[in-house]
Design goal:
single chain; 218 residues; alpha/beta; seven-stranded mixed beta sheet; 6 helices; 31% helix; binds 5-O-phosphono-beta-D-ribofuranosylamine
């Protein structure tokens, strides 16, 4: 089985990277993390790649005079390794429109909210302040505008009494660790199409329960 060659771009902790590496360890997973890139040499997540024997490279944005030059260096590294899908996983640099266009529909991101609600930073605090009863995460194709683009996978988690940012973030993060491997698998299986800026997924029409928060037994 030829596995889809995936690169993961990180800036920090790398728990989503770790989840992707773990998923790819299964013999029948149709993708492989072939390269990890970080814009920060001190990104803790680099250790996950090192432990798994995955090639890592640090391309420090500070070493480049312009955003375009940085993006170009990323692009060169990705192409040199024959990367077919790029996963942003806590990558804290905005990529320019040229890069995003070049990698259109081969570049995905995970965001810790149910987009289009709460794009940008501080999502959990804003969700709590808004009083929403569900939070969640979104895996989407990247477009030039931040946290926008066709949605591939979403996971919903309840907001519970007594939640603070840390508790909610932890619940959402556990959902992220299931959502990102699922999105990569669906893409690698060739089941994901973008039509009219919406995602269609072959064979994903299963029934799902309606979940109420609070439960109607309350
Ligand atoms: C995640 O919450 C992700 O959704 C957001 O940044 C965070 C990265 O966490 N884009 P990690 O580095 O994968 O642990």
């Amino acid at each position: 089985m030829a596995r889809l060659k995936v690169a993961v771009l990180i800036s920090g902790r790398g728990s989503n990277l770790a989840a992707l590496i773990a998923a790819c360890a299964a013999a029948d997973f149709p993708a492989a993390v072939a390269l990890v890139l970080s814009n920060r040499a001190d990104a803790a997540g680099l250790a996950h790649a090192a432990r798994a024997g995955i090639p890592c490279r640090v391309i420090a944005h500070r070493d480049f005079a312009t955003r375009e030059a940085f993006d170009e260096a990323l692009d060169l590294a990705l192409r040199a390794d024959g990367i077919e899908l790029v996963c942003l996983a806590g990558f804290m640099r905005l990529l320019g429109a040229d890069f995003v266009t070049r990698w259109r529909d081969r570049l995905i991101n995970i965001h810790p909210s149910l987009l289009p609600a709460f794009p940008g930073l501080g999502t959990h605090a804003r969700a709590l302040a808004a009083g929403v009863r569900f939070a969640g995460c979104t895996v989407h194709f990247v477009r030039p505008a931040m946290d926008e683009g066709p949605i591939i996978v979403q996971a919903a988690v309840p907001v519970l009494p007594g939640d603070d940012e840390a508790r909610l973030a932890a619940r959402v993060l556990a959902a992220e660790h299931r959502s990102y491997p699922l999105a990569v698998r669906l893409i690698a299986e060739g089941r994901v199409r973008v039509a009219d800026e919406r995602v269609e997924i072959d064979g994903a029409a299963g029934q799902m329960p309606v979940v109420l928060n609070p439960p109607d037994s309350a």
